[in-house]
Structure formats: C-alpha cells, structure tokens
Amino acid sequence: MSNLRLHTENLAVGYNGRPLLQDVGLTLRQGEIMTLIGPNGAGKSTILKSVIRQLALVGGAVYLNGQDMAGLSEGAIARQLSVLMTGRLSPELMTCFDVAATGRYPYTGRLGILTKEDREKVFQCLELVHALELADRDFSRISDGQRQRVLLARALCQEPEVLVLDEPTSFLDIRHKLELLAILKDMVRTRRLAALLSLHELDLAQKVSDWVVCVGADGIGRQGPPEEIFSSDYMMELYGTARGSYNALFGSLELEAVKGTPEVFVIGGGGMGNSRLPTFAAAGHSFCCWRAGGKRFGFSSRGGSGGGGRF
Amino acid sequence: MKNRALRYGLCMVLLLALNAVLLAWNINAGSVDFTPGEVLRALLDGNAGGIIWGIRLPRVLAASILGGALAVSGFLLQTFFANPIAGPFVLGISSGAKFVVSLSMVALLSRGIVIRSAALIAAAFAGSMLSMGFILLLSRRVKQMSMLVVSGVMIGYICSALTDFVVTFADDSNIVSLHNWSLGSFSGISWENVRLIVWVVCGAMLLTLLLSKPIGAYQLGEVYAQSMGVNIKRFRVKLILLSSILSACVTAFAGPISFVGIAAPHLVKSLFHTARPIVMIPACFLGGSAFCLFCDLVARTAFAPRDISISSVTAVFGAPVVLYLMASRKGGRT
To answer: If exposure means fewest CB atoms within 10 Å of the residue's CB, which of A115, A288, B7, B313 is most exposed?
Structure first.
C-alpha cells in the first residue's frame, strides 16, 4: 500500500464558487506533518475547510488514501480522517470523557451506545494526550490547554490515518502550545499518522513540521522542508513585512533595526547577549551587537521609556 | 460510569412516579367530586358517557402526551439552534401553526365542512413550517441567540395579529370555540383526537430516538458532527421536520402552549445532569408530560368550575425558568 495519505489535484478553494486560491497542490505522506503558514486572511483555513468538506470545492479534487473524497461516504471519510478545529467549544453538561467518546461515532451502532472496547479506546486516547485524570471533569470547566488536549484525544478516538488541525494552538499559552505540538509530533511518529495543520507561530512551525506550505496573499507560495522555507527574505515577502525582519535563527519576527551610531557595543556568545539587549533598549540606549552569523541587530528607544525589542 | 447509569435510572423512575401520581390526581380532581373508589369503578366500567371516561380521561391523556411532545420539540430546537431558550412557542412556530389552523377552520366551517383531526394536524404542520422557514432565513443573518429569540417573538406577534384578523371574519358561533382554542386549552379533546395524537406522537418519538446518535454529535457543533460522518443537510431537515410535527400536533388540538418547550427540557437536564440525547429524549417527554399534567390540574381546579387557559398557567411556572436561563447565560460564553 502506498504511503500517500492525502493529495490534491488542481484544487481550487474559495467561497460561493469564487476561487480564493487556485492550484493548491498538497501531498501528505504517512508519518509526516504538513504545516500551512501565512498571513491572516490568505486562505489557510479555507484550504483546511475545503479538505474536510466543510466548504464545497471550487475546482479540482482531494484524494484520501488515493480515493477521490467526493465519491466517499461520510462514514468512510470519518474512519480515515478526523479534525481539531479552531474556536472555543462549550457543550452543555459534557464530561471530558463524553467529548472524547464522540470520536467513536463512526464505529458505534444505530443508537451510538459505547461498547466496552469503545470505552477502553477512549481511555487509551485520553491517556495518550495526558488527560486521563480529566475524564470525569466538566469539559466547559477546564483550561483551554486541557480542552485542546481532550479534543485531540477525541480526534484520535476516531482512529484516523489523517488528522486535520486548524490553528490548534491559537488560544494557548506558550507552555500548552509546546505540549500540544509535542504530543502531536509524537502521535504522528509512533502511530504513523499524517497531519495537516495551520499555525501562526513560525518558530513552532519550523520545529514541528516536515513540510511547510506558504499561503500568501497572491496564492500558494513556496513549499518545502522547513530548512528551505524559513529563510529571512522569503518570510518578509510572505507576510508583506516592510519594517522589521525575520530572524531565521530564532524563527521569530524582529522589530526594525536601528539606524545611526550605536552607543553600546555588545559582544555576546552562547546566547548570553540575548538577555542583555532588551535591558539596554529599556534604558534608552541604542546599541549594536554582533553574533556568529555576522548580522547586525539593534534596538532603539531613545526618547521613550520602556520601549524595547523582543528576542 | 456505573453511578451515572444508576442516576439516570433513578431519575427515570422518579419522573414515571410523578407522572403516575399526577395522572391519578388529574382524573380524580375536578368540579364534580369523586372518591378514589368511584373513580376506579368508573374506569373499570368503561362507561363512555360518564365524566371520568368520557371527559377527564381523554383530556388527561392528551395533556400528558402533548406535553411530552412539546418538551421534545423544544429539546430538538435547542439542539438545532445551540440555544437554550429556543422553543416552539418562543420562536413563533406555535403561532404560525395557530394562524394556519384558524384560517382553515374559519374557511371550512363557514362552508359547513367539519374538519377532521388529521386535517387539523396537517394545517398546523403547514403553519409551523411557515414560521420555521422565516426563522431559518433569519438565523442565517442573526447570529446572536437573544436576537434570534426576539425575531421569533416578532414572528409570533405577526401570526397572532393575522389570526385575530381571521377571527373577525368568523361566524359568531365559531368564535367562541376558536377563541378558547387559540388561548390554549386541553378541554374538549375527544377519544378520536387522542387516538390520532398517540399515533403521530409515538411515530415522531420513535424517529427522534433513532436520531439521538447524530443529535449527540451535533451538540459539538456542525463542523465536528460532519467530520464524524453525519450528513449535515439531511440531518438538519430531519430535525426540523420532527420538531415541527411534534409541536404542530400540540397546536392542532390544544392551541399554542407557552414555555413548556423550554422549561421542561431545562428542568430535566438539571435533574439528570446530562445532555445525552438518548437519555434526554425520553426524559424530556416524561418531564414535559408531568409539567403539562400539573399545569392542566391548576388550570382546571384553581378557579373551578371555571377553566383558565393552559398557557397562562404554563407561563406562570415556565417563564421564570426562561428568565433564569437568560440571566445565568449572560456571564458565560454564548
């Protein structure tokens, strides 16, 4: 059997029959994480919604395990593909177990009653996302980070081969972002899943992805492994950033560099300089520093108090 | 898990017992006094002309079944709109049914044609679908749940105004019965009506129970439901049809009855502490049934021998529940 899980042919996506993006070529293999990055409104979510059939395709086709999804039944798709969507969910009076158990839907009978095996699978999936202790808690009364983990468990209960996640880290703080993506990466590796997701955080996209697809304002841009995509100039172009810069080393966007004569010259090493620079900036000094790559950075907050840069 | 099953079981037994008590009380109480022994003898006699067998029993059965239907209809609408204060009365669906029923009654009675029960249900169903169509159109534009309810109330007013308009053209002899019916009342229900009510409501309830699995998925929202394998379009059509049939059946025979559709599901949800459809659908039926039996008892006995309209009683007991729901949702995410 081929390891090709999801691919598209001449896919055009958009709303009400009007294409927003054309020629969306995606190829997702087993054991891979593919991440869509790009500015808001460019169409990351539109692509994902079209792939999961929430939106009608404007043109072309999406293939799931080699079969055209247009010809597959809802149940057949649900047994191969599951989703984790952005946006908060507050179902009434449901425990985390109940929420996760909805993932067994494609496997239960006419009335949806869980068998003993179903229950065991739900507990297993909750354990995989480290949410076993949440099972009996009310879903609407846990933190956002816990909620996303339970929803990931729900998606896993569907025993999918392909996972589609629309900005799964949106509402989370940094710790929970890392935790969720670490679990996801682990799942994809150990269970040989394939994941298609969209992310806002470039640093995380760089670390978690096997393949990155850039969705820019004028359509699909480059795609490739993260080490090829995350070059400084291209990121600037993708996000249409005229001021500031993208730091390929740290995977973050930086404020504009200072022009003029520096007052302080910092020689850092081993990351030591990093923590000092904002201090100088906050104190109102313009400064200049060099690091191994030989690229100049700077902050300036002359005339302002407390301004500074983020590293 | 075991505890939950036990809780559901106990609550069901409680509701059944409540229904049994209210049924007995309803049959016993009234403007003519009977001792329990006399009631029992009358029931066993099966004298169709008597007060017990001829008047009270059909009325009590209708109140019980129609109350249940109303609560289930409310539960379906609440699921559909993801809105705890959606219900057939609040959304103007009952009023739409009232309008079409009174229109067809006046049109046919003036020509001397007596309407059969089935035709009454059909007219009510057509009216329900009319209001439902408007609500569905509005719900595409109006995303806020409170605004949707306001739209429903407006549709209700329009339909009531049209009904009044129709009534002015009715013959004097028809106006009295039309007036009583349009306020909502279980009085004057015949055995023929009850038989039809049982068939329609039982059929719709069975289909609703079979739909409990996708309803459960739908509680997580449309996108998740679809990703689990629910055919959303077909499911939505089924849900709308079932909730309309259930509420139409009520309106056809008892007129528009307010607030049962919201209050009963909410009270039942709090009692069972779950929203699982497979439990909630039968539980709502029992809850709505008990609620209506109680309200009809009050309507018949509070100012006996005069009947007050059932809607005034359900509003007194149901509206506070709705107010509480609205107030308690204010702080939460909508």
So the answer is: A115
